[in-house]
Amino acid sequence: MNSFQSRFQYYSKRKFFRFGVPFLLLMVGGSFGLKQFAQLRYTFSKKGALTVEEAEKHGLLMKKPEEVTLEGEYEKVKGLDIDNWENIRGPRPWEEGTTPQAKAGH
């Protein structure tokens, strides 16, 4: 037992065992820890796109891809008047769902 204690005191005074060994353990242990976190990322990223049946099961109504086209959406946006608009601030959580303009009488 005395031999172990004297050896421990000898090595505990060395800089490599005081600073180098904990640093190496942290680096090696950290790489294994990061591996686990990265595995979570790839495990949950393999979820596919939401199908129409799954969306309807959750109460969402999706349009068919043929119904929505880039040209159709462009026609909708082209008809908007983007030059004349008014900036209206939304309600804050403490304002109970009313807009400040409605309180002021605008």
TrEMBL record:
Keyword Oxidoreductase belongs to the record: no
Q: Which organism is it from?
A: Aedes albopictus
Any Pfam family: COX16
| Intracellular or extracellular location(s) | Mitochondrion inner membrane
- Designated name of the protein: Cytochrome c oxidase assembly protein COX16 homolog, mitochondrial
Q: Which superkingdom heads the taxonomic lineage of this protein's source?
A: Eukaryota
Family per UniProt?
Belongs to the COX16 family.
Lipid bilayer topology:
Single-pass membrane protein
List UniProt keywords, sorted A-Z: Membrane, Mitochondrion, Mitochondrion inner membrane, Transmembrane, Transmembrane helix
